[in-house]
Amino acid sequence: MDVREDNYYLIGPYFPDTSKLDFKSVVVTGECPVGKTILLMRDMGYEIHLGYWLLESSRPLVILFNPDSHLPNLNQVKAKLWNDHQISSLRADVLTDKVLAFGEIIRIFFTTLRNFSNDDQDLIAHFHEWMSASCLPQLHDDKIKIATVFTAHATVFGRYLAPNEYDYYNKLSTYDLDEKAAHYNIEAQTGIEKAAAQHANVLTTVSAQCAKECELFLGRYPDSILPNGLNFKQKFPHESFSQHQKYRSMIDEFVKGLFFPSYHFNTEKTLYFFTSGRYEYRNKGFDITLKAIEQFKEKLQEMDSDITVILFIVSPRPHYSVKANAMEARSRYQHMQKLCRKISSKLGPRIYASVTHDGGSTLPDINKLLDDELLQDWKKTVAGFKQKQLPAVATHHLIHEDEITDFCRAAGFDNSKNSAVKVVYHNDFIERATSLLGIDYAEFISGCHLGIFPDLYQPWGYAPMESVVLGTPTIISNHSGFGQFIQDNVPDYEDKDIYMLDRKFQSDEAAVYQLSEMLYDFTINFVNNQFIPRSSVKDTAIENLCWSEIQPRYEENYNMAMMRSQPATGLY
Predict the structure, then answer these.
(1) For residue 327, which of 242, 230, 248, 434 has the smallest C-alpha distance?
(2) pTM for this prediction
């Protein structure tokens, strides 16, 4: 299938605040079926945007719908879902109502687009996750001539049961799903997901683990297992090390700006650990990470070492703004650097002139070489640079405190000077244009020493995969799809700075202890050998996760969807 920009569109919701930096609109004309559909729906009162999404490596065409504009009659939508598919949405929350509104707008869009298209024009709609697919069952019932693919990147039941039900993985087939859906108030979500999976022409998922969940929870085994991929080129060890040195120095600048107004430590003897992902405290293993870090801190302080470890936790959370002291500390540090460069540029020639003119063998009094204005600037800058309060754990003003901030407070992670382990909870995406670090997420990963991903529930695992591919030593969980992939396809992974945490066959407490030992061993290795390990997985198995290798399998599934949607034609 030749994907050109005039026949491939990404579809999603329009949120003005998040679209400012990444979206560039274009003028819609009525020269093609998509343009005609958009113009007609605008006349009907719907807010629809067409344009390019500004990615680093591509500019895909996107169609964005504002789910808050010209809302459909949600009661009618909910009634039809119940009458036709027994999907109960009476207790739906605000988010689920938005999902249903978005789905109804998408249904109208596809129905209208089909009417404007020629009969011989193939249309394929690929839905990802339940939040995109509430209209899929209705499109099937209405016999709209469109091939459909549904991908379950996880299951709703999995996300809720894994962190809340003891021994989840061994009890998959024992749950009363109706009772659990009612208990967790996820009847609408699970109903939409199951109906979408059963009515799609093709069902796919990302791992064997999630395929089993699809069979048990959604009543259908996937037609294909397609792992998530990355658009990457694996780096040689020397390239990875060079990138690490470059971006570590930029993380150093952020750390100095945040911590040095309060106190000083040696960044050359500082290790940067990180964990990241959507905020699912237990599923992402944030609980295990923090408990292990607490044990690790005690071991590190018993060493009486001058090593400092900073744990970055990167997880976007609802927040008001960046904390003023974080912004001000960075600004003060940058001002201090600027002034030091200014003093240095003036002192050099003056020292040289003083020595050559006087012919003396001792250094002159530096203070006498500074003019009064520069000396006053220095005194003011030093006075303004120092601050008494400790660096905050969270970088942003959270709308609500959460389990991470609660744990840090209870465990005494207050970023004090005498603590060998410090925590920086970055509550937003790391992007070059908006982040306090001034780098993007991939660069941040490259600058860190170790990635920590002790997932409890993770059908695949983009974050650990990115960490490994970018050359950063990584701890992964054997409960994640990516962890299972590594175990099955990279037999010598332990020799490539990939460490496997056992979350399948031991308790949480044992996993915490094992992780703390991994962190301690990693640090001791750094102290004793004074070198920076970098992962170097030059392996065919990993290279198969590149999108260029995975795309043909997507095309196979699209052809299968076309064949099933139009079996009588015999064209596919």
Answers:
(1) 434
(2) 0.87
